[in-house]
Amino acid sequence: MIRFQNVSKIYNSQSAALRDVSFSVDSGEFISLVGRSGAGKSTLLKLLIVEEKPSEGRVYFDKRDVHKMRPHEVPFLRRRIGAIFQDFKLLPQKTAYENIAFAMEVAGKPKTEIHHDVPLVLDLVGLKDKGNNFPRELSGGEKQRVAIARALVHRPDVIVADEPTGNLDPINTWDVIRLLIKINEMGTTVILATHDKEIINALSRRVVSLDKGAVIRDENPGRYILS
Amino acid sequence: MTITLLVWSGLLLLNVVMTGILDSLASKIDISVYFSLDAPEPAIKDFQQKIQQLSQVADTEYISRDEAIDVFKDKHSGDSTLVASLQELGSNPFEASLNIRAKETGQYGSIADFIDKTEFKNIISKINFAENKTAIERLSHIISVTRQSGLVLSLIMAFIAILVAFNTVRLAIYSSREEISVMKLVGASNWFVRGPFIMEGTLHGVFSSFFALSVMIPALGVIGPRFNSFLPEINLISYFYGNIWQIVLLQTAAGVALGVFSSLIAIRRYLKV
Ligand SMILES: Nc1ncnc2c1ncn2[C@@H]1O[C@H](COP(=O)(O)OP(=O)(O)OP(=O)(O)O)[C@@H](O)[C@H]1O
Ligand SMILES: [Mg+2]
């Protein structure tokens, strides 16, 4: 469903963030991207959601080159790919409920649908009664679950998670990982970029290892090995 | 904001005043053709018709010898010795004349040239254009220079206004960058993201226009009467209120156009989607 084909990304001429990366991800997979800091994990995910353009190569989603899409098509792609990040990217002046509703509003969804769907995803991430809390009133793990709920509200085909547990303690980390596994079991493809060795080893799913922008290992099930 | 509205009011006032002054000055310029005392009136009428047909000519006014003497008498009715000496003269010493006004001030030269070459030359005693020529030419030069510098000034001011509105929108984009990145993340359509900023530019234009108006009205109350005393032809205040809706509409439209234009540039530069 997703295919990186000979992708290179050079931000500035000194060094390449990605070099000739090729691999594909099938529908329904749970795949982890691992690598040292600066290996290019975030860059890879940014290329998929068209936040950055590749210097070379192609990125396919559903057989379409996402970088050949016209500007007005990109928002629709982004609704099919839910993205979550280490820093949550919630709007601080909106409640949990409003943050999720906002994602539907900007997509022009009708009010009745918003009133129906937002409580459902809040329930799904286990935050049924925290809907009226502002982000500052939530723990890190709860914030991340709000972000996941927001990513899910468009019923995406894929969830990309860029170090979603980077700011969380072990208990919250596992809450989030379990939630991602649950989402994957419901049929959504998950791409998880992480540093966390224990998660990778416990997951025992496919692992793509990056080093200095190149794929050095792609195993299923894989383990966290860097060198 | 303050700068923009001052720019706006300045722009409009200046334009009104300038066109007013220029029009009044331009309407004062004309060519007077004086005919010799024995010139037959039908020939003069012929001549007038011919001149009237020129494309450069706006209108002509024929003053016969009798009218000329009446005007003179009216003007000097208090001066009994002058009127008496005129009576003593017995005959009418005034020549008939034709005042010719051109459509544009630059066209007097060509009209004078035309007159110089007509077959009516023998009934013409003098053309006062030659005398006024340098004055007229200097004036039309001043007029065109003022018009040009007015245009340049307008452009500079428009540029400043764009710059100010552009900066406002840029700041708005900067201060809501977080919200923008979240909107993009969750798949907001591009115009949904841009909309508020175009709105910002539009409102900037509308508000500038209304502020400018609220500065202009009292300013006009002060300037208008003074202006009237030395240039009675231009009644700034009655011009303003006579055209108030056009002025408001025009100014608002211009403000909105500039505002939208500025926000589009700012969006292009600072809002990647
Ligand atoms: N916007 C940018 N401009 C210039 N260089 C960049 C930019 N973003 C990333 N880089 C560089 O590209 C390389 C890969 O960065 P990337 O963020 O993809 O790494 P990462 O694997 O996600 O690292 P981390 O685990 O620390 O998040 C790094 O050397 C980084 O300095
Ligand atoms: Mg990263």
From TrEMBL, chain A:
UniProt main location, coarse: membrane
Oligomeric and partner information: Homodimer. Forms a membrane-associated complex with FtsX.
The protein's name: Cell division ATP-binding protein FtsE
Keyword hit for Metal-binding: no
GO biological process: cell division
Record keyword Transcription present: no
Stated family: Belongs to the ABC transporter superfamily.
Membrane topology: Peripheral membrane protein
Keywords, ordered alphabetically: ATP-binding, Cell cycle, Cell division, Cell membrane, Membrane, Nucleotide-binding
Superkingdom: Bacteria
Annotated ABC transporter domain residues: 2-226
GO CC term (a single one): plasma membrane
GO molecular function: ATP binding; ATP hydrolysis activity; transmembrane transporter activity
Entries under SUPFAM superfamilies matching the protein: P-loop containing nucleoside triphosphate hydrolases
Location in the cell: Cell membrane
Gene3D superfamilies: P-loop containing nucleotide triphosphate hydrolases
Biological role: Part of the ABC transporter FtsEX involved in cellular division.
SMART domains (alphabetical): AAA
UniProtKB/TrEMBL annotation, chain B:
The keyword Metal-binding is annotated on this UniProt entry: no
Every ABC3 transporter permease C-terminal domain range: 152-272
Listed transmembrane segments: 151-173, 203-224, 244-267
Membrane topology designation: Multi-pass membrane protein
Localization per Swiss-Prot or TrEMBL: Cell membrane
Chief site of localization: membrane
Sequence ranges assigned to domain FtsX extracellular in this UniProt record: 30-118
Biological process (GO), any one: cell division
Keyword annotations: Cell cycle, Cell division, Cell membrane, Membrane, Transmembrane, Transmembrane helix
Gene Ontology terms: cellular component: plasma membrane
InterPro entries from the UniProt entry: ABC3_permease_C, FtsX, FtsX_ECD
PANTHER family listed in its UniProt record: CELL DIVISION PROTEIN FTSX (PTHR47755:SF1)
Family: Belongs to the ABC-4 integral membrane protein family. FtsX subfamily.
Name assigned to this protein: Cell division protein FtsX
